[in-house]
Amino acid sequence: MGKNKLKIGEFSRLGRVTVRALRHYEEIDLLTPEIVDRDTGYRYYSVGQLQKIFSITKLKSMGYSLEEIRDLWDDDQHFPTVKSLEEKIRKCEEELAVLKERKRMLKAVVASQKKLHKMEKVYFESLPAITVASHHTVITSFEDLGRLCCEVIGPEMARLGCECPEPGYCYTIEHGGYKPKDIDIEYCEKVTKKGADSALIKFKDIPAVPMAACLKVFGPYDKLYDNYVELFAYLEKEGYKITDAPRAVYVDGIWNQEDADKWLTIIQVPVEKV
Q1: From CA 14, how far away is CA 11, in angstroms rounded?
Q2: Omega before 167 within 30 of 0, i.e. cis
């Protein structure tokens, strides 16, 4: 054979298509070898046919089917008309709209499944009666909570001789509902017995809670609001009535975890079944 004749394997490598694809193109009469050896069955392509295989590959990447490409070559049109290209653009826009809607639906399902998975983690338990040392104030944001505990509440409790049993139990209640800033907050920490009230600390007995819906939340405190909303919606759907102020119980935080993603807060919502 001449030097300008290529075996199917060579043509496959140069044309950047698989041998299987070349055999398929031959079957549908899109691109046939120039020579087929009757004795060996070997197929030979010409170097000039590389241009056609490159054209086929390009048209496929533009969204043309093999049948459409074959019709172009049958009509001696080796490239689509402007009208044909504009039609492809229109179909692309339709497909994009379909894909966007599909993406929206998939994201909605994912969000729904995540909520369902999260609500599967809700558990119910009773909360015992306790005595707490309480500090009621307004903070600009939850970022001030750590400073408040370390610089104000902790030293004052130590001055008053407060004893906190193990394991520790402290929580906050947000009076007036959630606000992103200027938060009216009450910090409560379990103590072994009441002491003498001061300007900063008041002692009070907290009655037992027969049933509380509990949800663990990992991460910084700005995640709490969304979890509150989802938990409240879940409780309403399942027929529970909130009977007292929800508590945010601080298990792990900046005092023992530098990584905010590892902070653990447990939301406890006193409830009863309607």
Answers
A1: 5
A2: yes
Distance (Å, rounded) from C-alpha 143 to C-alpha 182? 11
Look at residues 62, 74, 61, 87 and name the one whose alpha carbon lies nearest to residue 28: 74
Specify the residue for token string 């009535």.
241
> CA torsion 11→14→18→20, rounded to 10°?
-10
Alpha-carbon span 73 to 31, nearest angstrom? 10
- The structural domain count of the chain equals 3
At residue 116 the predicted structure's pLDDT band, cuts being 50, 70 and 90, is low
Q: Mean pLDDT of all residues in the chain? A: 89
Cα–chain center distance at 146: 28
Judge if 46 and 95 occupy the same domain: no
Q: How many residues does this entry show for the chain?
A: 274
> Is residue 89 located within the same domain as residue 29?
no
Q: Which domain holds residue 87?
A: 83-120
